[in-house]
Amino acid sequence: MPDLLKLETKDWSLNVWSRDIAPSQKQLATTLAARQTTALPMGLRLRPALFKRCTPLPCIAEHQLLLREPIFFENRSYEFEFTFSQAMDTAEIRHRLTSVCDAFRFTGSALRGTLNTGNDVGWLRLGLHYCHDGQWQEAALAFEVLPTKMVMVDDLEKINAAIDHSYPLWRFALAQKTDHELAQSKKPHERFPLLWLAQFAALRDALLKEIHYICNAPHNRLQTSCRSLRADRLRGRMGYRLEEKVSQALAIGDTQRRFKSSSQRLSVDTPENQFIRMVLEYSRRSLAHFASAAAAHNTAPDRERISPAFFSELALWQKQLAQRLTHPLFDEVSDFTGLERESLVLHQRAGYAGAYRIWQQLKLYLDVFGRHAAISVKPVSELYEIWCLLELRRQLLALGFEEQASHKALLQEKNLEKVLQNGLGASFSFSRSDGILLRLAHEPIFGKPSSSYNQIYSWNATQKPDILLEATFPNGEQIIWIFDAKYRIDQADKPNTPDLAPDDALNQMHRYRDALIHLGQSPEGAILKSRPVIGAYVLYPGWHPQQDTASDNPYHKAIEAVGIGAFPALPEQANGWLAAFLLQHLGGKPSAIEYRIEAPDEYLAQDSVRIAPAGLYLRRNGQLVFVAPTGGGRTPAYLERFSQGTARWYHIPVDTIVKQQTSHTIMQDIAHCAIAIHSKGKTSVIDYVYDVRSVKRVERSQISAEQAGSNKAAGSGQYWLFELGASHRLDAPLQLNTQRPFKFKITSMRDLLSASNGDMLATRYGYLYQEAGLDA
């Protein structure tokens, strides 16, 4: 592969090389085409711009060189080689990160290094410092690292806006490979050292220039001074009254008497100069405090990531401010006590007006940021993770949940950065009128078991999934889903392959579901273990139109079969597949009256949840009762057996069950059967409850006439055939109203025994029931 970039200046030349950037360029082009947008010209900034030639560069504007095509991308390694035109004493790269500085090695005539951009996008700035014959010179090089899975301008701006709304200032970092130029914002924020430093770095040269001008031409004014002097010390013209008093004193020989004398002289001890001194002292103190906090942050060996060059730069800035304060001008200037009125000098006079404007920008730093102010931002992978958390929060609010503000995620300032509290502190709590409670937690920590019960543990290693969604139902039962944000896309070699989640990320979802165990205790004191996670899903920045149904998701079949899969999620799309999943599992409003989901029955009946170890079978509840009527056209002997509690068989078409969305798993859970016999009038009566020995799915031709209770020729189609066991007579017959077509119900034995009539029967899987009747 040829060099990606060749740049030559008077003192040095630069060659940049990477193995193969074609896949990254292709992925970026695909991303841009899917969004129907075009990439902005990629720039390379130099200071000073003393270059001879550069390849490939179609145009040059000021200190920025525009490339024909993007060459710097995330998650790629680049080799940089600075070759000097003459022998140098030494040369080095200066950057805030020690890892960046240490990546370069000087070999006498060249400075070489390899950098991996990782998940850092934005402007990567390298300061080149080289020494020849004891004279140090410097140059600066900056280039923009682009994401390939997102659009830098659109996607990242939306991510930043969403994060800033919920977690103000969190995304800013003390030191990363790249930084972002800050856009103007009118939203006020608390004073934050990182932002102040970024603004000071952008305005420092201008401030020093204005102070230099002030020192050379300071503002002064006439000030009246009063002194008490003896007569022989008085000079100049005296007033009539003072002259008369002096004459009287001399006439009586009082030569020691003192007389008040006032005079006017020019003085630089003005409120404006006091203000300038205050600006210098405040800036110096702020830099000293920042340097001290950064040094404390850097003391731990595992966090020693800030380079000595950064601390040297802070020390240089402090030294420059201290030198300005040693000017004789400020020896005569007292402390600033405030301005009694607006000063025209600060608003209009050269030097003072510039310093006053810079002070206002430092004080209101976020309101006036422009392209020259830049600050390090956390890696885009961390930004994407928090955005996914906020996107889930947004979609839950759209389902009718209300956020409990008292449980909102918290921020705290630590080591000059804003950090999220781990675990329950960084969570959102929601409630809804149907009684469902949700907790959306960011990076909850699950450690090894302790003596506490009703907790979730991980036996072998601590687990910390990105996002946990826990639903608590009105009956007290809980279920959990795991979401893990991965800012990666599977790099498939096949053409026209849709964006997919990485395989290792999907494998991690299996690990989470298997590793997290709920430790409970039965009333008898026995230890109960269960797996509380019923599904784990990757959120990844894949682009899909998502205009079709959820079944078009490449991972839909896996989600339905095993509860493991992925959802593409990006700021520029509606994320409809994720929204459809949450709607299916948490329910929305089909009408203005009620929500669809009331209990966790539906989730725990899914095939993906019921995958048991070989040789075992998982059952949701051992007390489920299937309540249904006898079909029409049955023989008297068939009906008589149900009346006497001696029935042995009952069947119902599979199509009828399927229409009611009742799954195979639910039918296998049924432990009892209560069949209603039509009586006089418009009622049916249940006298007996039968134990269910087995539930089988068979062809209609396999059901005998005795089992079917019909002399008609056997039809076609599949049926559920119940083999009934012992019968149990109810204390009082249960009356069912049959004015409307009778609906089957699935209830519990406790509810059946406590009901006084059929209309009072509480239902399990109530979301299944419609107004359709049954034809057995």
How do you describe this structure in short?
This protein has 776 residues and is α+β, with helices and mostly antiparallel strands. It contains 20 helices and 34 strands.
How are the elements arranged and paired?
Layout: E1 5-9, E2 12-17, H1 22-35, E3 42-47, E4 51-55, E5 59-61, E6 64-67, E7 77-84, E8 90-94, H2 98-102, E9 104-106, E10 110-116, E11 122-132, E12 135-145, H3 154-166, E13 178-181, H4 193-216, E14 221-230, H5 240-251, E15 258-267, H6 271-297, H7 308-325, H8 328-331, H9 344-348, H10 352-363, E16 374-376, H11 380-398, E17 402-404, E18 411-414, E19 417-420, E20 423-431, E21 437-442, E22 455-458, E23 467-472, E24 478-485, H12 503-515, E25 516-521, E26 527-530, E27 533-540, H13 556-562, E28 564-568, H14 576-586, H15 601-604, E29 624-629, H16 636-644, E30 649-653, H17 654-659, H18 664-669, E31 672-678, E32 683-699, H19 705-708, E33 718-737, E34 745-748, H20 749-754
Parallel strand pairs: 24-27, 27-28, 29-31
Antiparallel strand pairs: 1-2, 1-4, 2-7, 3-6, 3-12, 5-6, 7-10, 8-11, 9-10, 11-12, 11-13, 13-16, 14-15, 17-20, 18-19, 20-21, 21-23, 22-25, 23-24, 25-26, 29-34, 30-33, 31-32, 32-33
Written overview of the protein:
- It is a single chain.
- With 776 residues, the protein is an alpha+beta fold.
- The chain has 4 domains: 5-151, no CATH class; 184-218 and 270-369, no CATH class; 384-596, no CATH class; 624-768, Archaeosine Trna-guanine Transglycosylase, Chain: A, domain 4.
- It has 20 helices and 34 strands.
- The strands form 7 sheets. Strands 3, 5, 6, 8, 11, 12, 13 and 16 form an 8-stranded antiparallel sheet that branches.
- Strand 9 (104-106) and strand 10 (110-116) form a beta hairpin.
- Helix 3 packs across helix 11 (380-398), helix 4 (193-216) runs antiparallel to helix 6 and helix 4 runs antiparallel to helix 10 (352-363).
- It is elongated and about 150 Å long.
- The two termini are 74 Å apart.
- Mean pLDDT is 78; it is low at 54-62, 184-190, 366-373, 590-594 and 769-776.
